[in-house]
């Protein structure tokens, strides 16, 4: 996106900067929704008590994602992951993004196409495969325990005040 779609006049640097900054709009609401889905998934797959899943869906949604449900509806019927064999693993989607951001920021960001960095990934992550705990492979690759700083920085542009 570099010019007006009709006039073809180039966009001003100020407008381009504003467009870039909009990538952070609603990211908080998106991840609150992801937390809600993950928590619902975990609750229905681990709870030993019977429950009204429609009530659980609506109350968790309102509590976690801050969206008023209005008339209670069986929204869980739209969440296909709960029957796809994930067994309380939906949280893994977001969790993997935390690790990916950390790996990129720590190793690849300086030179993503450096063959030595790719070889490091092959040696530390791919070679071991499932023969050892994934967290051990990740620590080997990063040279330290993983953290969420790169993920948060990617989401918000800077680290939130609570992380400074």
TrEMBL record:
- UniProt GO molecular function: metal ion binding; metalloendopeptidase activity
What Pfam families has UniProt attached to this entry?
Peptidase_M3
The Peptidase M3A/M3B catalytic domain covers 2-154
Q: Does the keyword Metal-binding apply?
A: yes
Cofactor(s) of this protein = Zn(2+)
Q: Which GO terms describe its cellular component?
A: mitochondrial intermembrane space
Details of cofactor binding: Binds 1 zinc ion.
The record ties this protein, via InterPro entries, to: Neurolysin/TOP_dom2 (IPR024077), Pept_M3A_M3B (IPR045090), Pept_M3A_M3B_dom (IPR001567)
Q: Could you confirm whether the keyword Zinc-finger appears in this record?
A: no
Q: Which UniProt keywords apply?
A: Hydrolase, Metal-binding, Metalloprotease, Protease, Zinc
By its UniProt entry, which Gene3D superfamilies does this protein fall under? Neurolysin, domain 3
Q: Please explain the role this protein plays, according to its UniProt record.
A: Cleaves proteins, imported into the mitochondrion, to their mature size. While most mitochondrial precursor proteins are processed to the mature form in one step by mitochondrial processing peptidase (MPP), the sequential cleavage by MIP of an octapeptide after initial processing by MPP is a required step for a subgroup of nuclear-encoded precursor proteins destined for the matrix or the inner membrane.
Q: Which family does it belong to?
A: Belongs to the peptidase M3 family.
Question: What protein name does the entry list?
Answer: Peptidase M3A/M3B
Q: Which organism is it from?
A: Crucibulum laeve
